[in-house]
Amino acid sequence: LQHKFCSEGKVYLSILEDTGFWLESKILSFIQDQEEDYLKLHRVIYQQIIQTYLTVCKDVVMVGLGDHQFQMQLLQRSLGIMQTVKGFFYVSLLLDILKEITGSSLIQKTDSDEEVAMLLDTVQKVFQKMLECIARSFRKQPEEGLRLLYSVQRPLHEFITAVQSWHTDTPVHRGVLSTLIAGPVVEISHQLRKVSDTEELTPPEHLSDLPPFSRCLIGIIIKSSNVVRSFLDELKACVASDDIEGIVCLTAAVHIILVINAGKHKSSKVREVAATVHRKLKTFMEITLEEDSIERFLYESSSRTLGELLNS
Fold first, then answer.
1. Are residues 146 and 214 located together in one domain of the fold?
2. pLDDT tier for residue 32 given thresholds of 50, 70 and 90
3. Using CB atoms within 10 A as the burial measure, which of 106, 122, 133, 172 is most buried?
């Protein structure tokens, strides 16, 4: 296909690039400049334009006609769409695009290592921005956010699997995993900070005990034993490097560990992560002894839970 359409492919890319510039200069700028009530009247039109553009671009990448420059422009344009457009009608398409670009980076023979690294770094940034947008949707409209995340479970799982299969132990792999860790840690920490009664701070026993955003993401993670192992490695690294710090966030990490350990793909790496979190928690011992607070309860509860896990 690449050979047959080599010359025509350049024409297609040129047309798509022109369409992309038009989308930025006309459609996205129009959306930025208009009031919300006016946009509601034209939502179907601009959503259809954006969906059609992304669909064609996805197909171009999928059949191998999109070169490095085209893919980079597409990713940058995707960031612009997320920053400008309200609603998440494009999320499934973007996840499919990220998956295709992640795979095609292995077979683009003309790209230098530096170009591939830049491309994959942008893939990770688009993915991070996407999850941040979905997380904000959860906070503002929980039911809509939950419907959205459940609707994109298939492409999200396929993207994570693609990164795991093709780019293990690379910056994009670690970046995607750290983004998947950050979402649940932030949500669980927020939930813990809102609790006023210590009786409500029972550690989770099952996936269903996690708050909704975390439940969806961790539910996708635990579908694959390989992803679970890599996820735990990255969680351990985040704790060791203080990317996850403080009693509340470390307790959130404990909750994630417990749910993974209760799943069918529990790993021997659970103990390694548990030991790392346990050591980090001990650095807060003197602080928590000085006050009677939720944090002290979380410290004691998490330390006890981790001790039981490590001694089991």
1. no
2. confident
3. 172
**In the structure encoding, which two tokens stand for residue 177, read together?**
């995993």
| Residue 64 and residue 104 in contact, taking contact as beta carbons nearer than 8 Å | yes
- The C-alpha atoms of residue 231 and residue 252 are separated, in whole angstroms, by 15
Distances (CA, A) of 250 to 177, 196, 274: 17, 19, 10
User: 144 or 111: which carries more pLDDT confidence?
Assistant: 144
What interhelical angle do 113-140 and 142-151 show, nearest 10?
A: 140
The residue segments making up the domain with residue 247 are 168-312
* Model pTM score: 0.88
Exposed/middle/buried for residue 149 (C-beta within 10 Å: 0-12, 13-18, 19+): buried
139 and 221 inside one domain: no
Residue 262 has, within 13 A of its CA and on its CB side, a CA count of 16
DSSP codes of every residue in the chain: -TTTTHHHHHHHHHHHHHHHHHIIIIIIHHHHHS-HHHHHHHHHHHHHHHHHHHHHHHHHHHTT---HHHHHHHHHHHHHHHHH--S-TTHHHHHHHHHHHHHHTTT-TTS-HHHHHHHHHHHHHHHHHHHHHHHHHHHH-HHHHHHHHHHTHHHHHHHHHHHHHH-TTSHHHHHHHHHHHHHHHHHHHHHHHH--SGGG-PPPSSGGGS-HHHHHHHHHHTT-HHHHHHHHHHHHHHHHTTSS-SHHHHHHHHHHHHHHHHSTT--THHHHHHHHHHHHHHTTHHHHHT--SHHHHHHHHHHHHHHHHHH-
Residues 162 and 175 in one domain: no
Res 96: pLDDT: 95
Q: How confident is the model at residue 285 (pLDDT cuts 50, 70, 90)?
A: confident
Domain end call among 145, 166, 187: 166
Q: Are residues 64 and 87 in the same domain?
A: yes
- Measured over the CA atoms of residue 173, residue 176, residue 180 and residue 183, the dihedral's sign is positive
**Number of compact structural domains in the chain:** 2
